[in-house]
Specification:
The complex is a heterodimer of chains A (about 290) and B (about 700). Chain A is mainly alpha-helical and about 290 residues long. Helix content of chain A is about 70%, strand content about 0%. Chain A is built from ten helices and no strands. Chain B has about 700 residues and is of the alpha/beta class. In chain B, α5 crosses α6, α6 packs across α8 and α9 packs across α24. The radius of gyration of chain B is 27 Å and the shape is globular. Classes of the chains: A mainly alpha (about 290), B alpha/beta (about 700). At the A-B interface, α7 and α8 of A face β18, α18 and α19 of B.
């Protein structure tokens, strides 16, 4: 990239562009709400253990199955653990597991879609049919089978999430690449003898970010749900970790006595999924083609 | 209603109309205090650059503004009834019955799932209260009236089975079904080929005469206005700048903007060697940043301090000839200043003896035809689309080769084969004596950069995520052996060469206007120091004033750098202006080649003749010979035998044209025509279309035109 400072001109700093992005965000109330929800849980993922009133695993025998009260805002479970604290602290695992799973899926899907779409031909055909096979299987079932084979662990859940979402991300990236690679700026690059690598990573990729960001945020919201489902089924993170899905699963047997122990973790999953959904919707509008970068 | 009152009362009387759009940035006053009148049987042309408010004005007249559009004041009288006061229910009875609209894009204006006949019949049923059979009969009758071949068959077809020209006829038929008082046409021929445009314009002219409707015709093409309108209004940034009869405005324009627009248009009778196109500096102002005084003052060469103080009113300088210029007496006295200053750029260059830089020999490009699986079994082999079928041409330093033809004739495919974006099926390309591999990926970089291209669509040809510096600097970096500082200096120099400020280096493409983007694309092409530059319709997506500036720029750059150009366009006037050598393409073959002036003068190939007679010339006095091509270009899958042009040729000789391929005849050593008709017969048949154009008072008399014949 060519710097231009020597000519006494400079681009508007990135900060200013971020500010315009922020101003736009405020114009879409649902996007703003989504942003606040996600930001709240993300903050808790980082500082949760510091601000939570209790530890996630501390069992207070005297406080078993307490209703929500001033002492325990969201009540306690069958072991006397504080649900509010567990939700706050548990958000770290949500972001860690669902987040890295999504990130991995996006990176792999990006690579698959970019190469497959750009080179086309037989290789593209083979890769796409393989992805079709993966897409044809029900994701939850596939995840259960895979985790049943390799055994439940945090790392395995991440890998399974990534594996399940590669086809979807790959397809989205591929369709974007197919559109971009026939654009005239790509042809102009070919005419000056650019390498395929340059064309893929410097000409095409920067223009694929907006749809990819939308797709990634959607995948993330699906991943949160999938991870929670796996936790509920006991295939995810193991007890006594404060995993939201696991909490719902454990509280099932005590539903008659302590509804809150089930409803609040379930509500947390729902809230975060909706929040990410709103944010993703907002991104879609903010990053509309033609609005990119301005 | 008696005829007498009709004569006095205009059909459409727009009085002091103002329209604004409510946007995030506040109210945008798109049309301000515009008044105009259209009488029975008259055609009123509304011209102006894009963004001048023409379409908004028309939408307001029919009360069909977008949801955020507001009519702020004024009256729209249709036969004395103010349309702005009608209830929505009454308005629905006016639409279709009294006002009809012919839109710009026929494809999107016809319902794709209802047969054509039914769509026209529906208009008759709703507005004329006809029964189903009567309405169907009316539809057939209307199709017949718009000159549709085989109306019965066409009525049963769907939109996708018709060509653009035929669809436009359908829309005209639909509009005229109710015999409306007022017909509004919004750029009805803009998306069509020049040959189809000519046919549709003839039709519109004839029908308007027959139906005696009043018509409001919106266009950016001054040639079209000159051909079919009686009155013309020139709009600029939402206001009328000048209004008058065609003769008054085209011959005695009283506003610098009108004169500027007229001077921008290249003429078929003069080349870059004779004239430099006039250009209007700057851009149309943004509606939220209108200047205080005369809105045209910032771009006007006559502007003085007083012009910037107060908005000049429209004044009537002659009966029904109005101008918004306060210095109109000076404009009138010194019109020659604006009208193409005839500047001898250089004398016409001779075809030099030095070997051509680029030589394309026998280029062929066949595509597999898709979606025809069933014919495979019948004919035994796959049908081929012969997009380019044996074309040879060469380009020399300092000279421009113009490639002309209708859309679908293979011009662009030819260019893409030469640069290697398409792999030619056969033929070879030699660049500076070296043979180039067919595919761009196998060409050595050193040769690649000598062959650069400027694309049609400036929005797609620049990467939206790269700054101007990145875009222009990248070819320089690729050349190697050049430091960052040197790259920047060179970028700045290139920007200056294309008349853009150096501060643009930091901009992203979306911060540039269409013309500026195309300048950057040209700078990028020149950064590689090409010996041959291929321009594929580089100006057709742009406004006239911008087109002129770009043509001038290309001419200047060539004079400075000495590159060879291949200039592809369907705009014959632009090609004539910029080219030294012209080749005419039809259905993948060349039909006439020669020096520019000779190709456009008799003897001509009948196809060239038809193309030439179809150009709308912005001069109401020019009487072009009417040679019209029927139908559209045949499919390149089923190419007609014999002469490929015989199916549409207005001068077809007879059976020989259908069976034998025509021979190349040489007019003089350089100018050659591929036709069965003997050259002297062609000379006798053909009138010099440009004769009349040349004798018009405003036009200069270029030397050396047609002298080689």
């Amino acid at each position: 990239m060519v710097g231009v400072r020597t000519l006494g001109v400079s681009r508007p700093p990135r900060l200013a562009r971020l500010a315009t992005f922020g101003r736009r965000l405020v114009r879409y109330p649902s996007a703003l709400i989504g942003f606040c929800i996600v930001a709240f849980f993300l903050l808790m993922a980082i500082i949760g253990p510091l601000v939570a009133p209790y530890s996630a695993t501390e069992q207070i025998a005297a406080d078993r199955l307490q209703q929500p009260s001033a002492r325990h805002w969201l009540g306690t479970d069958q072991f006397g653990r504080d649900i509010f604290s567990r939700i706050l602290i548990g958000s770290r695992d949500v972001f860690l597991v669902a987040g890295s799973g999504t990130l991995l899926a996006v990176l792999m899907g990006l690579a698959v879609g970019l190469f497959s779409g750009y080179y086309g031909g037989l290789w593209d055909e083979i890769v796409m049919r393989l992805l079709d096979v993966l897409l044809a299987l029900p994701p939850l079932l596939l995840a259960m089978v895979l985790l049943g084979t390799v055994g439940p662990s945090r790392l395995n859940v991440i890998l399974v999430v990534a594996f399940l979402y590669i086809p979807m991300v790959g397809r989205v990236v591929r369709s974007v690449v197919l559109d971009l690679k026939t654009r005239e700026f790509v042809e102009a690059a070919k005419l000056r003898g650019e390498s395929s690598g340059y064309i893929m990573f410097r000409e095409i990729l920067p223009n694929a970010w907006p749809p990819l960001a939308v797709e990634a945020s959607m995948r993330f919201s699906y991943a949160i749900f999938l991870v929670a489902s796996l936790g509920f089924l006991g295939l995810g993170v193991q007890p006594p970790a404060p995993d939201w899905g696991l909490m719902v699963g454990e509280a099932r047997d005590w539903f008659d006595q302590a509804r809150w122990a089930l409803l609040f973790p379930a509500g947390a999953v729902a809230l975060l999924v909706i929040g990410v959904g709103f944010l993703s919707d907002g991104l879609r509008r903010l990053l509309r083609p033609g609005m990119a970068g301005d | 209603m008696s005829a007498a009152t009709n004569d006095q009362l205009p059909i459409l009387d727009v009085q002091d109309l103002s329209v604004a759009y409510a946007t995030e940035a506040g109210m945008l006053h798109t049309v301000r205090h515009v008044s105009l009148r259209v009488g029975r049987g008259e055609v009123y042309g509304l011209v102006g650059e894009s963004g001048s408010g023409k379409t908004t004005l028309a939408s307001a007249v029919v009360r069909y503004l977008p949801a955020n559009g507001r009519i702020l004041g004024g009256r729209v009288l249709l036969n004395g009834v103010n349309l702005l006061e009608l209830s929505p229910a009454d308005m629905r009875r006016v639409w279709g019955a009294q006002i009809a609209v012919v839109p710009q894009s026929p494809r999107t204006s016809v319902n794709p799932s209802i047969v054509i006949g039914e769509q026209i019949a529906e208009v008759a049923r709703v507005h004329l209260g006809m029964s189903r059979p009567a309405a169907w009969q009316k539809a057939l009758d209307m199709l017949h009236q718009v000159g549709m071949p085989d109306p019965e068959a066409v009525a049963l077809r769907y939109a996708h089975q018709l060509s653009g020209g035929m669809l436009q006829r359908v829309l005209i038929a639909m509009a005229l079904t109710t015999n409306p008082q007022l017909l509004i046409m919004d750029e009805p021929t803009t998306g069509l080929d020049v040959t189809t445009e000519a046919v549709i314009l003839d039709l519109i002219q004839e029908l308007l005469q027959r139906y005696q409707s009043a018509a409001l015709y919106i266009t950016h093409n001054l040639g079209v206005v000159a051909r079919i309108c009686n009155w013309v209004g020139v709009m600029y940034a939402g206001e009328l700048m000048e209004e008058g009869s065609i003769q008054d405005v085209f011959k005695c324009a009283m506003h610098p903007y009108t004169l500027g627009l007229l001077g921008c248009v290249p003429r078929v009778d003069a080349s870059k060697h004779e004239v430099r196109l006039y250009t209007i500096p700057g851009y149309i102002p943004r509606l939220d940043q209108l200047p205080g005084g005369c809105i045209f003052a910032p771009r006007c060469m006559l502007a003085e301090a007083a012009c910037q103080e107060q908005r000049p009113p429209l004044v009537e300088v002659n009966p029904r000839h109005l101008t918004a210029c306060r210095r109109w007496p000076e404009v009138e006295a010194d019109r020659g200043r604006f009208v193409r200053f005839q500047e001898r750029v250089s004398s016409a260059r001779q075809m030099s003896d030095e070997p051509p830089v680029l030589e394309a020999q026998g280029i062929k490009k066949y595509f597999k035809s898709t979606g025809r699986m069933f014919s495979l079994g019948l004919s035994g082999k796959m049908p081929m689309v012969r997009a380019v079928d044996d074309i040879s041409l060469s380009a020399r330093r300092n000279l421009t080769v113009g490639i002309v033809g209708e859309s679908g004739c293979g011009k662009t495919t030819l260019a893409r084969c030469i640069v290697g974006l398409e792999e030619a099926t056969a033929g070879e390309v030699m660049l500076e004596g070296q043979r180039l591999p067919a595919a761009v990926t196998r060409r050595p970089r050193a040769l690649l950069k000598k062959l650069q291209m400027v694309f049609q669509n400036p929005d797609a040809s620049l990467n939206p995520q790269h700054t101007v510096a990145d875009i222009i600097g990248r070819p320089l970096v690729l050349l190697g052996n050049i430091g960052k500082e040197a790259v920047l200096e060179r970028c700045a120099a290139l920007l200056e060469a294309v008349n853009l400020p150096v501060s643009y280096l930091n901009r992203l493409p979306h911060e540039l206007s269409g013309g500026e983007k195309q300048r950057v694309a040209i700078a990028r092409a020149f950064a590689a120091q090409p010996s041959v530059l291929i321009c594929d319709e580089p100006i057709s997506a742009l406004d006239v004033s911008v087109q002129a500036a770009l043509l001038n720029l290309l001419v200047e750059l060539q004079a400075a750098e000495g590159n060879a150009y291949l200039f592809i366009s369907h705009d014959l006037a632009a090609v004539r202006h910029i080219s030294d050598w012209i080749v005419i393409v039809y259905l993948g073959r060349l039909w006439e080649v020669g020096p520019a002036a000779q190709v456009f003068a008799p003897p001509m190939h009948p196809y060239t003749e038809a193309l030439l007679s179809a150009i709308p010339i912005p001069d109401p006095d020019v009487r072009q010979e009417r040679i019209r091509l029927s139908g559209s270009v045949p499919s390149a899958v089923n190419i007609p035998p014999g002469c490929r042009f015989h199916t549409r040729c207005p001068r077809k000789l007879g059976p020989i044209c259908e069976s034998e391929e025509p021979p190349w005849q040489s007019v003089d050593g350089q100018h050659r025509i591929c036709c069965h008709i003997p050259l002297d017969t062609l000379c006798q048949l053909q009138k010099d279309v440009l004769d009349t154009a040349r004798s018009s008072p405003c036009a200069p008399t270029p030397a050396g035109l047609g002298s080689g014949v």
